[in-house]
Amino acid sequence: MQQSSISGAFVPRIGSAPAIATTASWRFAQFLLLYSAVLMIFALFALGAGPLHHDMTEAWAWGKEFQLGYAKHPPLSAWLAGAWFTVFPRTQSNFYLLSTVNIAVALTGVWTLAGLFLDKRGRWAAVLFLVLTPSFSVWALRFNANAPLLSTWPWLTYFFLQSLQTRRLSFAIGAGAVGALALLTKYYALALFGTLFLVALLHPERRRYFRSPAPYVTAAVGLLLVTPHVYWTVASGFPTVEYAVSKTHYSVADARSHVITSASVSLGLLGVPLSALLASIGGASRRGIGRSKGANLNRDKAWLVCLALGPFVLTILTYFAFNARITSGFLIPAFFAFPVVALVLSGIVLTRIALRRFAICAAAIWLPVAVVSPLLGAHALGDKQKTRIEPREAVAAAATDYWRAAYGRPLRIVAGKKRLATAATFYSADAPAYFDSEKPENTPWVSSRDVEEEGVLFICPTDHSLCLARANSFAEGAAMRITREFVPHFLGVLAKPQSFTFILHPPKSFR
After folding, report:
1. Cβ(40)–Cβ(96) under 8 Å?
2. What is d(CA 282, CA 351) in angstroms, rounded to the nearest whole number?
3. Which tens digits make up the pLDDT trace of 403-428?
4. What is the pLDDT of residue 349?
5. Domain extents for the chain?
């Protein structure tokens, strides 16, 4: 079966198509399990020499304290981390498992979206294309505020396009609900919202769509679901908005350097899967490239081009409009629709041999990476960036032991250098609450009375004078100070020792 259409409007597969829950075939499910296993191997060995990234432990530190919003971002990524560890034990491997599940949901969304346009081989090609990008692999293993965008954007686009074509209220409601999840992940979802609005304006079915209840139902459902967060934002003084605006306060030179680097890297990395796909197709690739060039100039297909490149273009435009500093993390979900649209516009129908070649290319890249991942992890111990291999799990365990030995009670509140303090909330058996002593309003779940009654333990790198000064100014004379060296190690390889200072501000009953 060829693409459902390479003309202006697609023909959605409704009725004859399987339900959304069973869209992925059994072979695709097997592929997801295999790919997830490869990612887990890479995460545990290549990244295992160091601690979880501080974005991940920050998500947990927030998520364990349920709020309708947090100091920097809307709440969804924190909620997911908090909910995940109510079911799974708090281990590094289980956090990476959450990341791989998120990637699997994202790829299933792409598979489902591609099913609106492409035959079975085309769907496989779209998924394999993304597997060869860092956005759907290495970068996505860091479960931060960008990660759920990867899984929500393809599903939002699927529901939206079905709603646009059919005007069915079920799809309109689905688009509103998933759109709310995307916005509750990060305000960067507005880039996709803008893209989909332009798609609707350019689509041949635009008049029927905007004259139907569908777009207004989508908007109403989305607004209803984000209302609690909006209320929190207003009541809290717009902290998430202020944080987003702070990304425009960098120097012009700094912002320009970041946007050039991020755009170049993101576009350049598409060259790997694109080259593999063209090599797999062989001689037909030239005809496909020619058709794609012609389609880009075709007004009826402008909506498809917008769908593929809209998120990237709108992101870059924020730099020109607001001097926004764009990092590679912003662009992680930007190209999720690119391979689908590229295959549609090229009109290429993959043969079984071509698809097999493309799958071999993917395996030829990922299987060696998995095999050598222990060597990558051991090599990281020689990295000059000490933070990459900080022994935060051992530091958290030591902090917990010191506190219990001194006061005979569980550690309830931890502060200090953010990456160390949030890591302690995750790795410590006591799962203490994170307290931002510099800006207490950022951690409203810890009140001044809680600190007075329970005490607080500060963790600082011994050579970090600012962290130590803040801890000393907060702690009283009764505070206990301990300095200790830790030696990072992995698979029998030792790194240079690192020194940390613990400052124990005692509970009220010990003062």
Report:
1. yes
2. 11
3. 999 999 999 999 999 999 999 999 99
4. 78
5. 26-374, 387-510
- DSSP for residue 4: S
- Are the beta carbons of 213 and 168 closer than 8 angstroms? no
The model's pTM is 0.92
Mean pLDDT over 479-502 rounds to: 92
Predicted pLDDT at 15: 37
> What is the residue type of 62?
W
Q: Is 444 left (phi over 0), alpha (psi -120 to 50) or beta?
A: alpha
pLDDT of res. 39? 96
Band (pLDDT 50/70/90 cuts) for residue 4 is very low
Instruction: Name the residue with tokens 């605006």.
Output: 245
Sign of CA dihedral 345, 113, 140, 248: positive
Q: What is the dihedral of CA 145, 148, 153, 155, to 10 degrees?
A: -160
Whether 292 shows a pLDDT value over 70: the answer reads no
Rama region for 359: left / alpha / beta (φ>0; ψ in -120 to 50; rest): alpha
Cα 68 from chain centroid?
19
| Residue type (1 letter), 18 | P
> And the tokens for 42?
């890479």
Are 49 and 389 within 8 A, CB to CB? yes
Structure tokens at 204: 């041949």
Q: Which two tokens stand for residue 130?
A: 């993304």
Cβ burial of 219 (10 Å; 0-12, 13-18, 19+) is: middle
d(CA 20, CA 1): 20
Measured between alpha carbons, how far is residue 220 from residues 172, 211, 215 in Å? 10, 16, 9
Q: Helix, strand, or coil here: 208?
A: helix
| 453-469 tens-digit pLDDT | 999 999 999 999 999 99
87, 221, 356, 430 from 57: Cα distances, Å: 17, 32, 40, 15
Residue 401 reports pLDDT greater than 90: yes
- If you average pLDDT over residues 16-43, what whole number do you get? 78
Report the relative pairing of strands 413-416 and 456-461 from DSSP bridges: parallel
| pLDDT confidence of residue 291 | 56
Degrees (nearest 5) of the Cα angle 328, 369, 264?
Answer: 25
Cα–Cα distance, 255 to 319 (Å, whole number): 7
CB under 8 Å to 181, separation ≥6 — which residues? 76, 148, 152, 225
Higher pLDDT, residue 5 or 97: 97
